[in-house]
Structures are given as C-alpha cells and as structure tokens.
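Regression check, magnesium ion case 380:
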Amino acid sequence: MLEKIIKAFKNRFGADPDFVVRSPGRINLIGEHTDYNEGFVFPMAIKYAQWLAIKANKTDHVSLYSADIDKDVVFSVTDFSQKITGWACYPQGIAWALHDNGYPLKGWDGLLLGDLPLGAGLSSSAALDLVTARAFSLTGGFQWDPIQMSVISKQSENQWIGLNNGIMDQLISATGEKGKAILIDCRSLDIQPHALPTDTIIVVMNTMVKHALVESGYNDRFRQCMEGAKAFGKKFLRDVTMEEFNDGADRLDEVIRRRCRHVISENARTLEAAGCMERNDPVRLGQLMNESHASLRDDFEVSCEELDIMAEEGQKQPGCYGARMTGGGFGGSAIALVKTEYAELFMKNIALIYEAKTGIKPNIFATDAERGTSVEYTKD
Ligand code: ADP
Ligand code: MG
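Current build output:
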C-alpha cells in the first residue's frame, strides 16, 4: 500500500509526499450502543485502513483528492464560513474542531487511498478523521496525543456533522494495539488492552447492505436512552444498575424499557467479557457475544434481516464461539469469534449460506487486531 500511495501521490501532485499516515477501521467485539451512554465498549482495530499521503503547500488551504471515490475538494484552514456537504465534511470538520481548540493549522496537498471498505460499518469515517488529524499534527507541528485527537474527532462529528455518536470509533482507530482488543471506559476514557483468547481469530462478515434508517435510527436511540436515564434520575444509563432497572422498569414506557434493558445488560456483558479475556475463556466470551446480538435485535431493534442471517448462521458453524452484529446496525457488518483452524471453512460456509438466502455476495475476511494511527513514511 505504501508504494502504491506514494506513486499515486506523485502522479497527481508531481512530487514526493512529505509524509504518509494510516489509520485503521475497527470492529467492536462487544459493548454496542453503550458509548454515548458513557458505558463500556470493547473494540479492536482491523487489518484494513485509510492511508493518506500529504505534502505541505505553504498556503492556508487543504487540497484533498480521494482516490477511493475519485473526488477532490479544497477547503480553508482559517475560514469556516462555508460548510461542505458530502464526504469532505469529515476532513473539513477535523480542521474546524482543531482550529476551535486553538491548534495551529497549515495547508497541505493530500491523497487518500486505502483498502478499508467505506460505509460497511467498519468505521471508515472515523479512520478518515484520524488520518486527517494526524496530517494536521505533522504539518502544523503540534504533538500527537491519540486520546485528545479522538476527542477532537468526536467534537467534529457531533458539532460539525451533527451525528450524536460516541467516542468508540475514533478512539480505537487512534489507539489500537497489535494482538489486543481494547476495553474502553467511555466516561473516563481509560483504556485497557486485552489479548484475544489463544487460537482464535475474528471473522468479519460485511452484509453489503446499508438501510436508510442508519442516521435517523441512531439519533432516535440516542434520545430514547437519554429519556430512560432521566426517568431513573440519572444523566446517563451507565449509572443505572440492573437492580435499579428491575425495581423501576414498570414505570417506563415499553419501548424505553427495552432500550434501557439493552444498554444496562450490555455494559455488564462488556465488563464480563474482559474477565473472559483475562482467563482465556473463548466459550463464555462467545456466549456473551450471542446474547449481545439477541439484545440488539429484540430490545434495541437495530439489527436487520441480513445481520441476523450472518450472526445466527455464524453461531451454528463448527469452530464458532459466538457471533453478533457490530457497529451501529441497520446493515453493515457482523463478526464472529472463530477457532483459527476453522476460519477458512467458516468463511466458505457463511459466504455460500448468505448468498443463497439473500442473493447478495458478501465480503468476508479474517483479521487479527492491528495497531492504531501511524506514520508510515517520512521524507528525509
Ligand atoms: P463507515 O464509517 O462505517 O464506513 P459511514 O457512513 O459512517 O460508514 O462513513 C462512510 C462515509 O465516509 C463515506 O460515504 C464517505 O462519505 C466518507 N469516507 C470515508 N472514507 C473515505 C475516503 N477514503 N474517501 C472519501 N470519503 C470517505
Ligand atoms: Mg462511520
């Protein structure tokens, strides 16, 4: 990828880049729709990533070409009166949020070329945020603090783009570690790396569908969770225990009750998952993943037929410990925790079953946990 992107940059801009940076996509092992409730999530970075080659251009403009979608954009790093719509709102939003926090910004020419599927629920948007922030830190000469840059990226998505998402996607893309999934406390931003159980691998099953509900569904769930927390006299569902929920559940509207039950039980499952990793117990970890899927499907109602097929058929396969949808839902990807020696067979079987049931060819791959945002090339 490095040679390929340097060559593409040279073709486009007629010079070598100063830097090449990358930031990976992610899956979430468990802990779904808990981040914006200030709860716990357990993501890991995957082998596919966004790559960005850049060269300082001595102006106060960024000129960015995405070879992935063959589109370009120019935006100012000092004047944010013109908000761009479409894909370039992500990089522009990062510039805005950095500027808003007083970071010194300089212009650059950039080219994006990666191997991470876009819009597949693997968080290409957060990875795009992070490569952009990394580019600004290199050209503007400010220090790279992965956690602080995740906070900035979240601010961009919440305030510039208008998505009520939590911090998981940005934080894992920034802080991923080779061989480790990362338990994140979305309140304190404390991160705890844990190795996956031995002889297991994650299989990612991209349904290749994305239903229209993604944004509205997400914002609805956010509102319902906040309403649920308020009914318990708390700001966030993170602070409601299962006992408190059981005692007060009768007072809640039926839909809010189910939304709360998902978040509260999912937080408990996510913390238990860390214990499974500690004692190297893939069997219980897999059960928790299966329970998580059922809760997202029935109580939180963010799954869909395609994700259910992936998760439920996955669960039946030999060598599979557990399977669930991952990410926001309404399409995108599911994941399975599979005994490494069964991974090839698992992928073959699921591809056949999914296509037979839906008529859609899925994209299925196995991945270890990979490291987060990195600088891959510096011109000497
Ligand atoms: P996900 O983050 O799961 O991939 P999203 O819908 O949140 O899905 O983000 C995908 C969108 O992010 C794309 O439709 C596009 O607008 C933008 N995007 C991400 N990566 C790139 C890229 N390399 N080039 C251009 N746009 C990108
Ligand atoms: Mg996204």
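Comparison notes: The chain has a mean pLDDT of 96. The domain at 2-27+45-190 is CATH 3.30.230.10 (Ribosomal Protein S5; domain 2). No diff flagged against the previous build.
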